[in-house]
Amino acid sequence: MNNVIEVKNLVKSYGKIRAVDGISFDVAEGEIFGLLGPNGAGKTTTLEILEGLKRADGGQIKVLEREEIGVVLQSSGFLPELSLRELLVLLGSFYQHRRDIAKLAEDFDLTTLLDAKYEELSSGQRQRFALAAALVHEPKLLILDEPTVGLDPAVRQKFWETILELRKAGLTILLTTHYMEEAEIVCDRVAIIDYGKILATERPVKLVNSLGLVSRIKFMSSKLINLAELEVLPGIISARRDRYTYDLETETPEDSLRELLTWEKKFSGKIFNLQVQQATLDDVFLKLTGHSLRE
User: Fold this and answer.
1) How does pLDDT run across 44-69, given as a tens digit for each residue?
2) What percent of the chain has pLDDT over 90?
3) Hey, what long-range contacts does 206-211 have (CB within 8 A, 24 or more apart)?
Protein backbone atom coordinates (compact mmCIF):
# COMPACT_ATOMS: atom_id res chain seq x y z
CA MET A 1 0.00 0.00 0.00
CA ASN A 2 1.35 3.43 -0.97
CA ASN A 3 1.97 6.18 1.55
CA VAL A 4 -0.01 9.38 0.99
CA ILE A 5 2.04 11.26 3.60
CA GLU A 6 5.64 10.75 4.71
CA VAL A 7 7.16 12.95 7.42
CA LYS A 8 10.79 12.59 8.51
CA ASN A 9 12.50 14.53 11.33
CA LEU A 10 10.13 17.49 11.01
CA VAL A 11 11.14 20.57 13.02
CA LYS A 12 9.38 23.89 13.58
CA SER A 13 10.38 26.49 16.17
CA TYR A 14 8.90 29.74 17.40
CA GLY A 15 11.79 31.59 18.97
CA LYS A 16 13.26 29.30 21.61
CA ILE A 17 10.20 27.03 21.64
CA ARG A 18 10.27 23.92 19.47
CA ALA A 19 6.62 23.36 18.60
CA VAL A 20 7.55 20.35 16.46
CA ASP A 21 10.69 18.56 17.58
CA GLY A 22 11.95 16.08 14.99
CA ILE A 23 8.80 14.00 14.45
CA SER A 24 8.45 11.24 11.86
CA PHE A 25 5.36 9.34 10.70
CA ASP A 26 3.60 8.15 7.57
CA VAL A 27 -0.02 7.78 6.50
CA ALA A 28 -0.99 4.95 4.15
CA GLU A 29 -3.48 5.30 1.36
CA GLY A 30 -7.03 4.63 2.56
CA GLU A 31 -6.40 4.76 6.31
CA ILE A 32 -7.54 7.09 9.07
CA PHE A 33 -4.49 8.29 10.99
CA GLY A 34 -4.77 10.33 14.18
CA LEU A 35 -2.31 12.71 15.84
CA LEU A 36 -3.33 12.63 19.50
CA GLY A 37 -2.25 15.01 22.19
CA PRO A 38 -3.18 18.04 24.29
CA ASN A 39 -3.35 21.66 23.14
CA GLY A 40 0.15 22.93 22.42
CA ALA A 41 1.54 19.48 21.60
CA GLY A 42 2.43 20.46 18.01
CA LYS A 43 -0.51 18.85 16.21
CA THR A 44 -1.88 21.93 14.44
CA THR A 45 1.58 23.19 13.48
CA THR A 46 2.30 19.84 11.85
CA LEU A 47 -0.92 20.01 9.84
CA GLU A 48 -0.27 23.60 8.80
CA ILE A 49 3.11 22.56 7.40
CA LEU A 50 1.53 19.70 5.46
CA GLU A 51 -1.16 22.07 4.16
CA GLY A 52 1.46 24.55 2.98
CA LEU A 53 0.35 27.24 5.44
CA LYS A 54 3.67 27.21 7.34
CA ARG A 55 7.25 26.49 6.33
CA ALA A 56 9.23 23.87 8.26
CA ASP A 57 12.60 24.73 9.80
CA GLY A 58 13.95 21.27 9.10
CA GLY A 59 13.10 17.73 8.04
CA GLN A 60 11.37 16.31 4.99
CA ILE A 61 7.73 15.90 4.01
CA LYS A 62 6.09 14.10 1.13
CA VAL A 63 2.42 14.82 0.56
CA LEU A 64 -0.06 15.03 -2.31
CA GLU A 65 -0.51 18.12 -4.46
CA ARG A 66 -2.77 20.84 -3.05
CA GLU A 67 -5.56 20.03 -5.54
CA GLU A 68 -5.69 16.53 -4.05
CA ILE A 69 -6.08 17.72 -0.44
CA GLY A 70 -9.21 18.84 1.40
CA VAL A 71 -8.92 20.67 4.73
CA VAL A 72 -11.27 21.31 7.66
CA LEU A 73 -9.67 23.79 10.07
CA GLN A 74 -10.40 24.14 13.79
CA SER A 75 -12.61 27.13 12.99
CA SER A 76 -13.87 27.92 9.51
CA GLY A 77 -14.65 31.36 8.14
CA PHE A 78 -16.68 31.90 4.97
CA LEU A 79 -17.74 35.06 3.15
CA PRO A 80 -20.79 36.17 5.15
CA GLU A 81 -22.65 37.75 2.22
CA LEU A 82 -22.78 34.55 0.15
CA SER A 83 -25.25 31.68 0.48
CA LEU A 84 -24.05 28.11 0.95
CA ARG A 85 -24.80 27.41 -2.71
CA GLU A 86 -22.73 30.41 -3.82
CA LEU A 87 -19.89 29.44 -1.51
CA LEU A 88 -19.74 25.90 -2.89
CA VAL A 89 -19.81 27.20 -6.47
CA LEU A 90 -17.05 29.69 -5.65
CA LEU A 91 -14.86 27.09 -3.95
CA GLY A 92 -15.42 24.61 -6.76
CA SER A 93 -14.35 27.19 -9.35
CA PHE A 94 -10.80 27.09 -7.96
CA TYR A 95 -10.34 23.49 -9.11
CA GLN A 96 -10.30 21.64 -12.39
CA HIS A 97 -12.30 18.71 -10.96
CA ARG A 98 -15.35 19.43 -8.81
CA ARG A 99 -18.45 17.67 -7.61
CA ASP A 100 -22.01 18.44 -8.61
CA ILE A 101 -23.28 20.93 -6.01
CA ALA A 102 -26.77 19.42 -5.74
CA LYS A 103 -25.37 15.91 -5.17
CA LEU A 104 -22.80 17.21 -2.69
CA ALA A 105 -25.51 19.02 -0.73
CA GLU A 106 -27.66 15.89 -0.74
CA ASP A 107 -24.81 13.73 0.56
CA PHE A 108 -24.29 16.08 3.54
CA ASP A 109 -27.95 16.83 4.24
CA LEU A 110 -27.63 20.46 3.14
CA THR A 111 -30.19 20.59 0.32
CA THR A 112 -32.75 22.65 2.24
CA LEU A 113 -30.02 24.99 3.53
CA LEU A 114 -28.36 25.98 0.25
CA ASP A 115 -29.93 29.44 0.24
CA ALA A 116 -28.95 30.12 3.87
CA LYS A 117 -25.86 31.99 5.03
CA TYR A 118 -23.13 30.21 6.98
CA GLU A 119 -23.71 32.39 10.07
CA GLU A 120 -27.35 31.23 10.19
CA LEU A 121 -26.40 27.57 10.66
CA SER A 122 -26.28 25.51 13.85
CA SER A 123 -22.94 24.07 14.98
CA GLY A 124 -23.76 20.68 13.47
CA GLN A 125 -24.86 22.22 10.17
CA ARG A 126 -21.70 24.33 10.05
CA GLN A 127 -19.55 21.26 10.50
CA ARG A 128 -21.41 19.41 7.73
CA PHE A 129 -20.96 22.38 5.43
CA ALA A 130 -17.25 22.73 6.25
CA LEU A 131 -16.82 19.06 5.40
CA ALA A 132 -18.76 19.42 2.14
CA ALA A 133 -16.68 22.48 1.24
CA ALA A 134 -13.47 20.52 1.86
CA LEU A 135 -14.66 17.77 -0.49
CA VAL A 136 -16.06 19.94 -3.30
CA HIS A 137 -13.03 19.15 -5.52
CA GLU A 138 -13.00 15.37 -4.82
CA PRO A 139 -9.66 15.26 -2.94
CA LYS A 140 -7.77 12.05 -2.21
CA LEU A 141 -6.63 13.23 1.24
CA LEU A 142 -8.78 14.91 3.91
CA ILE A 143 -7.09 16.75 6.80
CA LEU A 144 -9.19 17.46 9.91
CA ASP A 145 -7.91 19.64 12.76
CA GLU A 146 -9.86 19.01 15.99
CA PRO A 147 -13.07 18.58 13.96
CA THR A 148 -15.48 17.88 16.84
CA VAL A 149 -14.46 20.54 19.38
CA GLY A 150 -17.57 22.30 20.67
CA LEU A 151 -20.04 19.84 19.16
CA ASP A 152 -22.61 18.05 21.30
CA PRO A 153 -22.31 14.23 21.58
CA ALA A 154 -25.07 13.43 19.07
CA VAL A 155 -23.54 15.70 16.42
CA ARG A 156 -20.07 14.28 17.11
CA GLN A 157 -21.33 10.73 16.64
CA LYS A 158 -23.01 11.62 13.34
CA PHE A 159 -19.84 13.36 12.17
CA TRP A 160 -17.68 10.29 12.81
CA GLU A 161 -20.20 8.06 11.06
CA THR A 162 -19.77 10.29 8.01
CA ILE A 163 -15.97 10.10 8.27
CA LEU A 164 -16.05 6.29 8.40
CA GLU A 165 -18.25 6.23 5.30
CA LEU A 166 -15.75 8.46 3.50
CA ARG A 167 -12.94 6.08 4.44
CA LYS A 168 -14.98 3.17 3.02
CA ALA A 169 -15.19 5.12 -0.23
CA GLY A 170 -11.38 5.20 -0.38
CA LEU A 171 -10.54 8.60 1.13
CA THR A 172 -7.36 8.89 3.20
CA ILE A 173 -7.86 10.91 6.40
CA LEU A 174 -5.38 12.59 8.74
CA LEU A 175 -6.89 14.12 11.86
CA THR A 176 -5.89 15.68 15.14
CA THR A 177 -7.87 15.34 18.34
CA HIS A 178 -7.52 15.34 22.10
CA TYR A 179 -10.64 13.15 22.44
CA MET A 180 -8.91 9.81 22.98
CA GLU A 181 -12.14 7.80 23.09
CA GLU A 182 -13.07 9.01 19.59
CA ALA A 183 -9.65 8.17 18.21
CA GLU A 184 -9.92 4.62 19.56
CA ILE A 185 -13.12 4.11 17.59
CA VAL A 186 -12.32 5.77 14.25
CA CYS A 187 -8.53 5.62 13.75
CA ASP A 188 -6.71 2.76 12.08
CA ARG A 189 -3.45 4.02 13.58
CA VAL A 190 -2.53 6.80 15.99
CA ALA A 191 0.56 8.76 17.00
CA ILE A 192 0.77 10.02 20.57
CA ILE A 193 2.37 13.49 20.54
CA ASP A 194 3.38 15.68 23.49
CA TYR A 195 5.67 18.73 23.67
CA GLY A 196 6.42 18.44 19.96
CA LYS A 197 7.62 14.82 20.07
CA ILE A 198 5.91 11.62 18.92
CA LEU A 199 6.11 9.09 21.75
CA ALA A 200 4.47 6.08 20.06
CA THR A 201 2.75 5.14 16.81
CA GLU A 202 0.55 2.07 16.39
CA ARG A 203 -2.99 0.72 16.05
CA PRO A 204 -4.96 1.78 19.15
CA VAL A 205 -5.62 -1.73 20.47
CA LYS A 206 -2.03 -2.83 19.82
CA LEU A 207 -0.70 0.28 21.55
CA VAL A 208 -2.77 -0.48 24.64
CA ASN A 209 -1.71 -4.14 24.68
CA SER A 210 1.98 -3.49 23.95
CA LEU A 211 2.40 -1.37 27.07
CA GLY A 212 0.97 -4.05 29.33
CA LEU A 213 -1.75 -1.78 30.63
CA VAL A 214 -4.10 -3.31 33.13
CA SER A 215 -7.85 -3.67 32.60
CA ARG A 216 -10.31 -4.54 35.36
CA ILE A 217 -13.22 -6.93 35.72
CA LYS A 218 -15.56 -6.11 38.59
CA PHE A 219 -18.58 -8.05 39.83
CA MET A 220 -20.63 -8.91 42.90
CA SER A 221 -21.30 -12.39 44.22
CA SER A 222 -24.15 -13.99 46.12
CA LYS A 223 -21.64 -16.19 47.99
CA LEU A 224 -18.14 -15.68 49.33
CA ILE A 225 -15.43 -16.62 46.80
CA ASN A 226 -11.93 -17.78 47.69
CA LEU A 227 -9.66 -15.24 45.98
CA ALA A 228 -7.15 -17.98 45.18
CA GLU A 229 -9.76 -19.56 42.84
CA LEU A 230 -9.96 -16.34 40.88
CA GLU A 231 -6.22 -15.63 40.81
CA VAL A 232 -5.48 -18.94 39.04
CA LEU A 233 -7.82 -18.11 36.15
CA PRO A 234 -5.83 -17.50 32.91
CA GLY A 235 -4.92 -13.85 32.43
CA ILE A 236 -5.76 -12.73 35.96
CA ILE A 237 -2.93 -10.74 37.57
CA SER A 238 -4.55 -10.15 40.95
CA ALA A 239 -7.89 -10.43 42.72
CA ARG A 240 -9.24 -8.26 45.53
CA ARG A 241 -12.50 -8.22 47.48
CA ASP A 242 -14.29 -5.33 49.16
CA ARG A 243 -17.30 -6.79 50.99
CA TYR A 244 -19.42 -8.29 48.18
CA THR A 245 -17.53 -6.72 45.27
CA TYR A 246 -14.63 -8.47 43.54
CA ASP A 247 -12.00 -6.59 41.52
CA LEU A 248 -9.80 -8.53 39.09
CA GLU A 249 -6.79 -7.08 37.24
CA THR A 250 -5.98 -8.48 33.80
CA GLU A 251 -3.94 -7.65 30.70
CA THR A 252 -6.31 -9.71 28.52
CA PRO A 253 -9.85 -8.67 29.52
CA GLU A 254 -11.69 -10.57 26.75
CA ASP A 255 -9.93 -13.86 27.51
CA SER A 256 -10.23 -13.42 31.27
CA LEU A 257 -13.94 -12.62 31.00
CA ARG A 258 -14.54 -15.84 29.07
CA GLU A 259 -12.59 -17.82 31.68
CA LEU A 260 -14.56 -16.19 34.51
CA LEU A 261 -17.92 -17.05 32.91
CA THR A 262 -16.77 -20.63 32.36
CA TRP A 263 -15.68 -20.84 36.00
CA GLU A 264 -19.07 -19.48 37.12
CA LYS A 265 -20.84 -22.55 35.71
CA LYS A 266 -19.08 -24.67 38.36
CA PHE A 267 -19.60 -22.09 41.11
CA SER A 268 -22.41 -22.82 43.58
CA GLY A 269 -23.34 -19.15 43.85
CA LYS A 270 -24.13 -16.46 41.30
CA ILE A 271 -22.15 -13.47 40.08
CA PHE A 272 -23.92 -10.28 38.97
CA ASN A 273 -23.33 -6.56 38.23
CA LEU A 274 -20.48 -7.60 35.95
CA GLN A 275 -18.38 -4.68 34.62
CA VAL A 276 -15.34 -4.64 32.33
CA GLN A 277 -13.16 -1.53 32.50
CA GLN A 278 -10.69 -1.84 29.65
CA ALA A 279 -7.46 0.12 29.38
CA THR A 280 -7.79 3.02 26.92
CA LEU A 281 -5.64 5.49 24.99
CA ASP A 282 -6.01 7.84 27.96
CA ASP A 283 -4.15 5.21 29.99
CA VAL A 284 -1.56 4.95 27.19
CA PHE A 285 -1.00 8.72 27.30
CA LEU A 286 -0.62 8.65 31.09
CA LYS A 287 1.85 5.77 30.88
CA LEU A 288 3.97 7.46 28.19
CA THR A 289 3.99 11.01 29.56
CA GLY A 290 3.45 10.61 33.30
CA HIS A 291 0.52 13.01 33.24
CA SER A 292 -3.11 12.94 32.20
CA LEU A 293 -4.14 14.37 28.84
CA ARG A 294 -6.53 16.78 30.54
CA GLU A 295 -3.99 18.16 33.03
Assistant:
1) 999 999 999 999 999 999 999 999 99
2) 76
3) 207/281, 207/284, 208/278, 208/279, 208/280, 208/281, 208/283, 208/284, 209/251, 211/284, 211/287, 211/288
